Amino acid sequence: MSHGSVTAVGNAIVGCTKCPRLRRYCTAVARAKVLRFRRDVYWGKPVPGFGDPAARLLIVGLAPAAHGGNRTGRVFTGDSSGDWLYHALHRYGFANQPHSVGWDDGLVLIDCYVTASARCAPPGNKPLPAELERCRPYLEAEIRLLSRVRVVVTLGRIAHDSYLKAAGWWDRFSPKERPGFGHESSALLPNGVFLVSSYHPSRQNTNTGRLTRAMWHRIFDRARARLDGVA
């Protein structure tokens, strides 16, 4: 996939119709809504990445939430996962504000770009392997264009594996050598990019204590220190 800018990639994502199951689901959710957002006009289309084209930090998530990104039109915006992410990005100097509630809320990312493995909200938060594969060229294009990235944080196993595949590392490592997923697991890739994996800040993880604020902040401690040349 050849695009000259991350904006062009984003435009291609918004117009994508590669996955009929996901398009039907997102459109149906946007029509039906939920009671607490009944007055909102849902986005209902694939959700592009968001952030600084000159970013050195790349965050890779799973997919938009049905009533989060699928509603607001911006990745990790309008749900509790986004609350966790953007609060941390602000705390560590990667965002101008700690909240992300809608595409027009004034949020600006600094030295950071946020993207996802799948660009449409999937039923049950579970995109099919074929859907992830069809979506992967968009992530490949973003990785190619975000040439200044030095640290990558992957949120969840699917995002971790998707990044390795999109960046071309999956097949270059043997299964034994391939960087594995685990909270706070890290690897220095051959091109000098520092890869850190984290549990996803989903309610399933944050409400059960599987992911605590301290654990979450340690991920960004490492990212910030790496970029600042401390570690």
Can you tell me about this structure?
- With 231 residues, the chain is of the alpha/beta class.
- It has a single domain (6-227), classed as 3-Layer(aba) Sandwich (Uracil-DNA Glycosylase, subunit E).
- It has helices spanning 6-14, 20-32, 69-72, 80-91, 129-145, 157-166, 203-206, 213-227; strands at 50-51, 57-61, 112-116, 151-155, 186-188, 194-198.
- A six-stranded mixed sheet has the order 1-3-2-4-6-5.
- The model has no long low-confidence stretch (mean pLDDT 97).
What is the compact description of this entry?
It is built from eight helices and six strands. The protein is an alpha/beta fold and 231 residues long.
Q: Give a short account of the largest sheet.
A: 6 strands, mixed
Give the class-level CATH name: Alpha Beta
Shape call: globular
Topology pattern, helix = H, strand = E: HHEEHHEHEHEEHH
Count of individual domains:
1
Biggest β-sheet: strands ordered side by side in the sheet: 1-3-2-4-6-5
What is the average of the pLDDT values? 97
Q: Give the CATH H-level superfamily.
A: Uracil-DNA glycosylase-like domain
Structural class by SSE content: alpha/beta
Helical residue percent? 25-40%
Radius of gyration: 17 Å
